[in-house]
Amino acid sequence: MDKRQLTGILLLVIALQILPVSDTLAKHLSASLPVLQVIWARFFFHCLATGLYSSWRYGPRLLLPTVSWVLTARSAALFFAVALFYVAIHQMPLTTALTLWFVEPFLLTILAMLVFKEKVAPLQWLAIAVGFLGIVLAIRPSADNWQWSYLIGLGAGMGYAVFLLLTRVVESKIPAIVSVYQTGLVGCVLSSIAVIPVWQTPSAVQWLQLMATGCVAASAHFLIIKAFERAQASLLAPFTYAEVITATMLGVLVFGDVPDRWAYAGLAIIILSAIAVVPREPRREEAPQA
Q: What is the C-alpha to C-alpha distance for residues 224 and 74, in angstroms, rounded to an integer?
């Protein structure tokens, strides 16, 4: 593994320690404001913060959306994933929703193999499969405790896998911060229209929290895009499990959602599978880029 790949992994891990802060704010706000309004804030302030910076750094012309099916599809995938995830965390503990979200690395690795023809080592397959079993152990779905919101959480993870896959396609075409701005445009437009019928006037504190929800998420996604510029999707996929560290801590400290021993066991398996997935193949010289 070269220095560039290690940097990509480090950027991803840092981003995924930041992102749960936005999720925690969203869950807290959804107890007093409509979920749709929280989703709106997530994308509106995402676009506002990154748009202002992009305009200052690269000029206002880059604020015009790029006409591209890839960018539009990626933006729609992020909106789909975040909207479903916010609905899920409104109905269940943050760690439970995040555990369901972790179906994403499994799907992302398969998609990366099919679309980009990336090589997936047997150890990577084993670690991801074990991690997925850890999800099942943590949730322990049965006829007695089954909730339809589990499917919402799984749908969110599926949407995010598509988002990360499409991120690879546009990684070198535009500056990363502009890419983050354009990624939020579909969600910003759709949620701005949909929120009108359910709008409630926030308090001053809620306005600050709504702003932070979008700005923190935008910062994390900037780091995620930079990570995917440096490493393959199949290499980064298992490290998305690192998000559980901060999410679990915030779930306990803010909401008092203490996972039971089975959840801890499942999460431990997920984390160990991420550690085990680091490639151990001998280094090879790469062909020069055209």
A: 14
199: left (phi over 0), alpha (psi -120 to 50) or beta: beta
**10-residue block means of pLDDT along the chain (290 residues)?**
86 92 95 96 95 88 76 90 94 85 77 78 79 77 65 90 79 74 91 96 96 94 85 74 83 86 78 62 39
Coil vs helix vs strand at 278: coil
**Burial 126-143, CB ≥16 within 10 A → b, else e:** ebbebbbebbebbbeeee
Task: Tell me the Ramachandran region of residue 93: left when phi exceeds 0, alpha when psi lies from -120 to 50, beta otherwise.
Answer: beta
Q: Give the integer Cα–Cα distance in Å for 48 and 70.
A: 22
156 neighbors 88 (Cβ within 8 angstroms): yes
Task: Look at residue 111 in the predicted model and tell me its pLDDT.
Answer: 82
CA-nearest of 85, 20, 11 to 249 is 20
